[in-house]
Amino acid sequence: MAPSKPIIDADTAEYWNYLRLGELRLQHCRACGRDRHPARWICPQCLSGDFEWKRLSGQGQIYSFVWYMKPLHASFLEVPYNVAIIELDEGPQLVSGVDSVAIGELYVGRHVEARFVNMPGDWTALRFVPSTKVRG
Amino acid sequence: MQTGTLLSYTKVWVPRADLPTPYTLGQIRLDDGVTVFAHVRELPEGVHVPMPMRLKVSPAGSPGPVFWFEPR
Amino acid sequence: MSPTQAALSRKVAVVGVGTTHQGVHPGKSDYQLGVEALRLAMADAGIENRHRIDGVLGYKFYGAGIDPIEFCKLVGMEPRVTGYLDYGTGGFTTQYAAMLIATGVCNLVACVFARNPAGAMDDFSGLPNEYDLTCGFVNAGAVAALGWTRHMARYGSTEEALGHVFVAARKHAALNPIAAFPDRVTLAEYLAAPYVLWPFRGYDICKVTAGAVALIFSRADRAGDFAKPPVYLLAVGRQQTPRMLEAGDQLLCFGMRMAAEQVYDAAGLGPADVDALFISDASTAAVIHTLENYGFCGEGDGQDFVKDGGIELGGRLPINTNGGQLGEGYLVGWLHHAELVRQLRGECGHRQVSGAEVAQYCTTGRFRQDSLSSIYVRS
């Protein structure tokens, strides 16, 4: 796998900085209370530009996933690998991948938790692994 | 077709490595009716359009435009 | 019917269609193919003078296709209007053509699309869409695949459902002389094929092909002047759902439900009235999502609807009698329009749906962020 360094711009810089610090933070609109991802300079719900970077627990569930079985891109020739949509406990969804699982071990609804993985090129990726927390 | 009429022209001052600054481009209607864009050289001070023009071809292997037009 | 919907209803008709063979066209440019298709469409319509056409719409898809101004330069046409949409697949471009005519801007619009891309017959459509290179989220098929994983989890649908869709597509393509993939595939062969992008097999994602298609639209009140019986546009429904990957269930294409409500309300018809259905099938899963969201069957029941030949010729509701993008060729839904016109004219031969009077086309755009459906009728 050769994940590319993310495109870091004015909207997303803080997201990646927090990942580097080992924190998953998303924008939280102070006007209407909605959390959002991807990062934007205004809230798509109420159009307010007033937000803060809210720290999330890193806990979530698999909303959906796929397994790449054949190489479909020059940067991702090592297969199989998965991509998953994670529904975070706090509500927002984001796209990432789940490590430490084999084919057949992923399922919709499986609990996962965030891991912060330092990458070459001086950035930190957000990855997920099966949750270690016991869920009641 | 060796001859035509200059319909319009412009002098370009934006430098290009492979061309002199300035260089002139013109729209020439050849006498058989086809209209072309080409380099234009040797336009006189008081140039006015339409102006009769003659085709010039550069020797093989020379740098610059392969052909251009000059006043007849 | 709302006043805006009434503006389109029966104001526009398709009077000519032209299609080349789909597959590979060695040595031919997009424009050569496009000229072929337009010639075929004009002959189909009985139009001898191309200067009667006062609107020309083209489309470029991933760098290959028809720029309408360049096309007009090539064939010496000087229409009132040229245009193309940044996302101009089947229903969207035809909606644009219809609006030009319904507003009186144009009287006769030719839509021309041709592609001769690298990778024809080998590459999957949608390469190399790069959604997120930090985690390897690439390829348009992945979005559809994510939707199917969700569908399976929510409704207990199975891979066989996709297999039935593919088998039907290839059955229809086998009857279509211009199809790129005329070989039938059995369900067993489908299930034996390896996964490419689990839960999708290679068969589940349509392949890139080369070919051309042209559609000629006319004012309805002049549509009788042409060689063949006109096919009238009755209604279009359209809805955007831009935050698709953030809003969870958009993966299940719920935006289609809004387009469905609009088009059926405007047409005064319902799913039960449709004789032939055309679905832009970049993936097999798209067919199941469409059947459910448009109300052809209940939520989660698509897997049963497609069983036992349900969507094949002779079945309950034939879908994509041309073979669709999975079997005929990938010209982003334009070919579906040619076939639906031929169905309503009664000229599909072995592929004919007997007595077809109402045909519907359904698509999504920009990976489920745009949903559209059009309904056409014979008279």
Verbal overview:
The complex is a heterotrimer of chains A (136), B (72) and C (379). Chain A has one helix spanning 13-20, and strands at 25-29, 35-36, 51-55, 59-68, 81-88, 93-96, 111-119, 123-130. Chain A is mainly β and 136 residues long. A 5-stranded antiparallel beta sheet of chain A has the order 6-5-4-7-8, covered by helices on one side. Chain A has a 3-stranded antiparallel beta sheet with strand order 2-1-3, with helices on one face. Chain B is built from no helices and 5 strands. Chain B has a 5-stranded mixed beta barrel. By secondary structure, chain B is mainly beta. Chain C is of the alpha+beta class. Chain C is 32% helix and 21% strand. In chain C, the strands form 4 sheets. Chain C has a 9-stranded mixed beta sheet, with helices on both faces. In chain C, strand 3 (59-61) and strand 4 (64-66) form a beta hairpin. In chain C, helix 6 (159-173) crosses helix 9. The radius of gyration of chain C is 19 Å and the shape is globular. The interface between A and C is large, with 37 and 35 residues.
- Overall geometry of chain B comes to globular
Beta-strand residue fraction of chain A? 35-45%
The order of strands across the largest sheet of chain A is 6-5-4-7-8
Within the CATH hierarchy, at the fold level, what is the topology of chain B?
A: OB fold (Dihydrolipoamide Acetyltransferase, E2P)
Secondary structure: number of strands of chain B: 5
The major β-sheet of chain A equals: 5 strands, antiparallel
Tell me which CATH architecture of chain B applies here: Beta Barrel
Helix run count of chain B: 0
Name of the top-level CATH class of chain B: Mainly Beta
Fraction of residues in β-strands of chain B: over 45%
Main β-sheet description of chain B = 5 strands, mixed, barrel
The dominant shape of chain A is: globular
Specify the helix fraction band of chain A. Answer: under 10%
Query: Helicity level of chain B, as a percent range?
Result: under 10%
Strand runs of chain A, count: 8
How many domains comprise the coordinates of chain A? 1
